Every structure is written in C-alpha cells, then in structure tokens.
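Structure tokens please, single chain.
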Amino acid sequence: MALSPPLSVGPVLSGAEKLDEVTRLINILEVDLKEKNLLPPKRNATLEELKIHTRSIDDADPILTTRGISVLCQHSFKGNSLTTARGALKCLANVMLLDPSTRQIFVDLGYAPKAAERLKNDNRDDEFLGSRLLFLTTYETNLDFEDLFENHQLAESINTNLSRHAKIFSKAGPKTPVPLFTILALSETLKLLFNLTQFYPHHALTFTKSLLYILKILANIKVPTPPLQPPVTYLINSLLNLDLEDKKARHFTQNPLFPKFDPNNNADRLIKILDSSVRQYKAEQLERLATPLASLIRKIYDFAPDTVKHHMRSLLLPSDEERAQPLGKSDTLSAHLLRLSTSPVAPGLRETVSNLLFELSDRDATSFVRNVGYGFASGFLLTHDLPVPENALEAWSTGISSDTDPLLEDLGEKITNINGVEINPVTGQRRDREPSNTEAEMTEEEKEMEAERLFVLFERRVTGPPRSKMIYPTILTALRLRATGVVNVENPVTRAMQEGRFEEIE
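Here you go.
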C-alpha cells in the first residue's frame, strides 16, 4: 500500500542552519513539557515551525532520536489542547514516514494504543493522523496489534469511521464536492484497513460490516479522470481481503454487493471503472493499478447470482457484433482485455485478466476457446496444463500437410459455430467476414508482434520439464507462420531439442 507524502509546505532550511534551528525548537518544546512556559498560541506556532523542517530528515537529527520522538509524542497525547496535539502529530507522522527507524521508537515508547484511542474521536483530523501513525507501524515494527484489536477496539473504530464516511458521501452524491481533508482521512483509514486484513487475516471478519459502507462510498464518490487514483484505488484494495460473500460473519440478510433495488449496481460500477481505465492508461501502468480491480471483479463473479453473472458476461466477453473482425481488434472493453491477456509488459495483469476470462467461460476450456478464440486462449491453456478442446485442434488449419513434416497431421477444417454462424476458432471472426487472404494484409510490424507472442508462449512450455502434447498447437502456429511467409523462423522444436530444454515426447 502506497505511503503518502509528508504533511507540510513552505521553505526548508538545510545544513548547519537547519540543524541548529531544529535543535532550538526541540529544546523549547522539551522545556515546555516540564515548565508549561509557553502560551497555547506560541506552543502551536513552535510546532508549526518544526513541521516545516520535517519535510526532509536531512539535518534533522534531534527529531530522529528517542528524545525527539518522546517530545513529539508527549505533546501529541498528554496535553489538553487538541490543536496542539494535532500539530505535534503532523510532525510525528512526517518523521515516521521518512525515517522507518522512528516507528519502532514510537512503539517502544508505548504510544500506539493512544493512537488507536484517538480514532474513537468523531473528527477527520484525528482519524487521518491516528490512522496514518498506525498504518506506518504495520511496517518494520514489532507492534502487538492483537492488543489494539482486543483492548482498544481498533476494528470497531475503523468500522465506525467508514460508516461516517458512507453517510457523508451518500448525502453529498457524486456531483457535490467533499472536503479534501475528509477524502484524505478516508484514504488513510482504507490503507490501514487493507494492511490489517493483509497482515492479520484472522481479524478480517471483524471488518465485514464495512463492506456495506465501502460500497456506499464507491457508489457515490465522483470517480476522477483518469479513474485509478486515491481514494478510488484504496476503496478497491480494501475490499480484496474482506469476506465478500459474508459466509462466515453473516452480517447481512441481503448481500450489499447485490442490492435488491439493482443487483447489477456494484458490478456495473466496477466494470465501468475498468472500462475507463483500460482506455486511459498504458499497459505498464495498468499492471500496477488495474490488477487489483480485475481481481476483485473476478472474485465477485465467482459467487454472484446467475442473473448478475449473465450481465457481467455481456459486459466483459466479446459480443456477436465484434466478430465481424478478429477478436481483440476493436475498441470495446472485451477487446482491450483480450490484448491485455497477452501483454508482455504486464505479466500480473495478463494472468489476472486471463483468469477472469476463463472464469467468465465457466472454467471450461471449450467455452473459453469459443468465447475468446484459440489465439488468445492458447497461452493460458498451455501454461495451466489445461487440455486443448478437440474441436479447436481439429479446426486448426496450418497450411502444412503431413507430407512436409512428420510431426504434423492434416487436422481438417471442422468449423466451430456460435449461434448458428460459422466462426474461425483461432481468431473468433465470422467466416463470412474474413478476407480471402488475411496473412497477406498483415503489416511487417504485425507479423513480428505475432511471431513474438507465439514464441513467448512456446518458451513458457520449454523452459521447464515437458508436460504434455498440448505444446504442439503452439509449434504448429510457429511453423504455419514460416510456411505462409509471415516470418522466417527456425523450427522451435529442433532448436529446443538441440539445446536440451526438453525431451522428445513419445
């Protein structure tokens, strides 16, 4: 989960000048703890000055010590002024962000429970600062979060804060701006929730009730452009580790993922965000940003009611209209997903999208090939040791006869059809819309890309031990490319056997 930038703006000193100033300010604040010699406005102004210097930890050594952290913690949690406390907490949050070693100092001084208690305040500043401190201590500390769960009602505080945000966003709606600091507080809470469910999965059920709140926020928040930005990304991530099906906690009589007023509502929202994302980000960006979203959509599909599943398939799988050309060539969401399913620069998303498309095909290899075409399905089937459907193999037209290569056989031209219309099982295109010679119309760049994609699939199969005869369709494709002049390549079987990468298959 991403860390946020430090909390401060303004000029920053450097070198000996900064070190002297930081030393002076820490000394003033330390004396004030003992003598109470500063009036509240002066105390707050001193903390504000110090905050400016916490934008960078260079030449800020006095703050990074146990003494410095102790001074900030005491002003954060032991005074009577919330204004002073929040000023000190901002300094503390900046320092703990930039210097991980200070997080353990904070824990050792025993202030984590006080940060958890601060989350009980119905105040967005306290929510923001308390959540950020606890979020930071999920990294590189030995903090006992079990104590915070059991004795300081950490889960209850997070659930309550999310319920407050749900009310705020439901009342505002997507057209009314929500105060920036409210959004920042929400983001910190969601980041903390994700890390707690990730690192302490046995406590994930305590957050199930927040499923409703998160979905309400997601339904009412204005999605930015481009869409995968905080807090939308944090809303999506926070759902990943929850009991979405509500099988164990049984908090709801009606799963909020599929509300009675419109069971498709939340699936629609997520798919629209995905649709917008694939059009506005490059594949390399989508690898980092969209993989959690695709994974969430897949999880929801897995247990969705049949009517919702049918609706999701209609949005995510290629339509009959798309088959007027080879699948993956249009500008629809399904075409974008198909291209991502073979993207060489987005391996994580490639796997997630392929799994999603396979789920949408009821985990059936034949349905998968019919839905997306063998050209897109082959890599997933081969790398997951799934049997290639016989009808796909029989429909494969290589352009090479068994007379030219003893490994090959004439597979014939058994035609697959969908809704009574004959289609090319490799490309997914309708036969009656195919040009007379598709290869002749490919550009040199398209030829090279196709060859690269096929050999990437081939390399996946031969870098490990041999598994099955499922490797042959990929080999056939490569040979077909050579025979038809798409690309001049060496027989990959011969080369792989010469290099000892797999044994001959009997």
